[in-house]
Amino acid sequence: MRKLILCLALLMVLCMPVSALEITAPEVPAAGAQIMPQQTQSFADAVLEILGDAVSLLRPDLKEAAVSCFGVLAVVVALSVLTSFPGGHGKITEFVGVLVVGGLLLRPADSLISLAADTVEQLSEYGKLLLPVMTAALAAQGGVTSSAALYTGTAVFDALLSGLISGALVPVIYLYLALALGCCALEDSALQKMRDGIKGAATWCLKTVLYVYTGYITITGAVSGTADAGALKAAKLTISGVVPVIGGILSDASEAVLVSAGTVKNAAGIYGMLAILAVWIGPFLRIGSHYLILKALSTICSVFEMKSVTRLVEDFSAAMGLLLAMTGAVCLMLMISTICFMKGVGG
């Protein structure tokens, strides 16, 4: 039955005008349009251009991060001086320091959390536009089973991951920071366990979704790709033997059409991957720069022996790490699915 369907599909494709076979990736979202390269023929050159443009737009964020860090350092130095005087109350001083430092770091952290949530939403929405295009392109090349399996799996897991991030993990980040602030200010072991448990649960959720998705893609891609390759070969043999007089010519022509469809599919896939990178790379660099700066800041704070403040800065850095993992997970999922679509039938 599948062989008959593929035979009919190949014959219909051969009868279509060239314009009907045109398949293009959707336009890049506005968030990545300003750094999207004009030329996309060379994937490596386009990636380097995107990265260079994204880095050039990073200066305002670095300035904002530097201002926050200098403010934190000023507070830490002042508190360290106060505690060095005779009669200085170390516990009270560190309590006040934790509250002040938390206030200084919370505003940029809130901005970055919103940025990560928006990036996940934009990547997910672009994936909903790109996946049908890649599915149609792979199906036109003969990968009926592969395209259906890849589309179903990616759509389900993308919806699951984006929903998990926006509905659960983003609020969890705020809860994590609140617990971190309370833990460092009050030095409460119960709050510390809750904070660590929330961080571990968020990390486990992201890893599990990606592990299950990659496992699904690996198994279904290998099985369906092999099935499509065998069915295509049988379908072309059937056309060659069944269609009178011109069956051999049609079979040869179908091979040329499939190669052309594969070329169009790869072009759409490359553009789609560049668009995904353009949307993702800017927020990733912004969050990543804050992550690295906070890491360095916690090291400097530890020199002044302000343990509670140092732990709080480390917790804010860990929150930035979770944001990087969230945006990276969605980007990675879409990139893997696009590459699998480009891989083709039985590849």
Please provide the ordered H/E string of secondary-structure elements: HHHHHHHHH
Uncertain runs are 1-21, 222-232, 234-261
* Rg computed from alpha carbons, rounded to a whole number of angstroms: 27 Å
**How much helix, percentage-wise, in residues?**
over 70%
**N- to C-terminal separation?**
23 Å
Q: Can you tell me the number of structural domains?
A: 1
Arithmetic mean pLDDT: 76
Structural class: mainly alpha
Number of contiguous helices:
9
Largest sheet: none
E-strand count:
0
Share of β-strand residues: under 5%
Large-scale geometry: elongated
Task: Explain what this protein looks like in three dimensions.
The protein is mainly α and 347 residues long. The chain has one domain. It has nine helices and no strands. The protein has helices spanning 2-15, 30-33, 43-56, 59-84, 90-140, 144-186, 189-242, 247-303, 307-343. The radius of gyration is 27 Å and the shape is elongated.
Short précis:
The protein is mainly α and 347 residues long.
Give a quick set of tags describing it:
elongated; 0% strand; disordered N terminus; mainly alpha; 9 helices; 347 residues
Write the layout of secondary structure elements.
Blueprint: H1 2-15, H2 30-33, H3 43-56, H4 59-84, H5 90-140, H6 144-186, H7 189-242, H8 247-303, H9 307-343
Helix pairs in contact: 1-7, 1-8, 3-8, 4-5, 4-8, 5-6, 5-8, 5-9, 6-7, 6-9, 7-8, 7-9, 8-9
